[in-house]
Each structure stands twice: as C-alpha cells, then as structure tokens.
Design brief:
Blueprint lengths: L5 E8 L2 E6 L2 E7 L1 H11 L4 E5 L11 H10 L4 E4 L5 H10 L3 E4 L1 H5 L2 H10 L4 E9 L4 E5 L4 E6 H10 L4 E6 L11 H8 L6 E4 L5 H9 L5 E4 L1 H4 L5 H10 L7
Parallel strand pairs: 1-4, 1-12, 4-5, 5-6, 6-7, 7-10, 10-11, 11-12
Antiparallel strand pairs: 1-2, 2-3, 7-8, 8-9
Length: 251
C-alpha cells in the first residue's frame, strides 16, 4: 500500500470558501488564504481549491484569490474550476500553482488532457470526475454536477489515464456533503480500473470513512472538506487515525 495523502478541499465562490450538500445550499466557511495557511500548519499533504461556479458562470478561475493563497501555502496545491486552455493553465502555473484540475473542459475536449500533459508534465494535470449512480452503473456529470455527460464512469476514467492525466479526483455527487461516507463502490470501480492515483472525494463525515475509502475503495488519497472546515477534526487527527488502521501516512 502506498502512502495515502490527506487533502483538504476548499470550494471557492465569490472569493470565499463555501461548503454545500450535493453541490448546492452553499454556506460560507472562511477566507481561502486563512484556511490554506491553517491546513498547512495542520500537516495537509496537499490542498485542492475548486472555483465551483466558474464553469457554470462561464468564466475563468479568479486569479485574485489564487495570488493570495500562493503567498501562504507551503504544500503542493491544485486549482480547478473553469480552466479550459493551456494558456489558462500556464497563467496559474506562473503564479505558483502546483497542479491544475480540469473536469468539464476535459469531457468536452479530451485532447486537452494529452496536450496539457505534454506541455506541463502529467504529474501537474489532475482530471476531476464528478459522477452519480445511474440506471446502469455510474454516469459522469459536468458543469458543476448539473449536466449528464453521456459517459460511463469507468470507461471515462480509463480514457483519462490513456490520454496522460497524472491523477483522478473522483467525487460522488450523491455523497457530497452528506457526511455519510464516500461512495465506496464507485471509488473501488475506478481505483481498480486505472493505475494512476485516485483521490476519493464526497461524503466524508468521520475518520472511519477515510480508512474505508483506502482499505475498501482502494483509493490512493482521501479528500475532505466539511470535517475540516467546521472543526470536527484536524488533518493531524485524520492522519493519526489512518496510521492506527495500518495505512501509511506522512506524519
């Protein structure tokens, strides 16, 4: 078993950290730079920032909050939301962003994955996949989870790997914000179908859920938002728990 990363996720809207349930009913959590600094101090392995309304509002990721975050972050971090071109990626990398996460743009133009990997290196390209249970298996969603992409999840995940993405960030819309646990069958289906790292996202409400995502869902890494934002657990507590369950982590 490889070392599991514990990754706080900050959903950004109007320059603030927000948290919702199943991608809606957002409530304000705090300032992105303050939150990022706190998570670095707690020992986060990486941080993910998702400008969740960027694609829906048909605009690019806001660079203003990214500039503030760069000044305080001491760990690798990814930015996603509304990124649709190599130029936009380069602008973020030039600011100091470690990785970019693409979702809707990758579905609409799969060649972008390959082009980005060639231009910047696969390890800097994360493909985020939002999915939900369908009538037959799991279906891929785009536009902030508001539209069906017409793609079967596992097939898309395999295509993403073949095109050269460095990792997959997998979010279950059904589980998002519910605190009832990650979608283990979904996570397992993707993790077992690809060889690149898969980060489980959506639904973490207690530390046992993180262990289940790795042990039962075969996820490489675990991402959480609510339990960290609202002070239920610290990143360090999460890591100590995973270690107690035999999962290798960096303490």
């Amino acid at each position: 078993m490889e070392m599991a990363k514990v990754i706080p996720c900050l959903d950004i809207k109007d320059g603030r950290v927000v948290k919702g349930v199943k991608f809606v009913n957002l409530r304000d959590a705090r300032d992105p730079a303050q939150a990022a600094a706190a998570y670095c101090e707690q020992g986060a392995d990486e941080i993910v920032f998702l400008d969740i309304a960027a694609t829906v509002e048909k605009r690019k990721t806001r660079l203003e909050w990214v500039k503030k975050v760069v000044k305080v972050v001491t760990v690798p971090f990814a930015v996603g939301g509304g990124i649709g071109s190599l130029d936009e990626m380069k602008a973020l990398f030039d600011l100091g962003v470690t990785k970019v996460s693409i979702n809707t743009a990758a579905v609409r133009n799969p060649d972008l994955i390959e082009e980005a990997g060639d231009a910047f290196g696969p390890d800097r390209i994360v493909v985020a996949i939002d999915a939900q249970k369908g009538e037959t298996g799991f279906e891929v969603l785009i536009s902030g989870g508001t539209k069906k992409a017409g793609l079967e999840l596992v097939e898309w995940a395999q295509q993403v790997e073949d095109l050269g993405a460095g990792e997959i960030l997998l979010t279950s819309k059904d589980a998002d914000g519910t605190l009832d646990g990650y979608d283990i069958p979904m996570t397992l289906a993707v993790s077992d179908a690809v060889t690149i790292p898969v980060t489980a996202s959506g639904g973490c409400g207690k530390l046992e859920h993180m262990a289940a995502a790795v042990i039962d869902g075969h996820a490489t890494n675990v991402l959480a938002a609510s339990i960290f934002h609202f002070g239920t657990y610290t990143v360090q507590q999460a890591k100590q728990y995973l270690k107690s369950q035999g999962i290798p982590v960096r303490l």
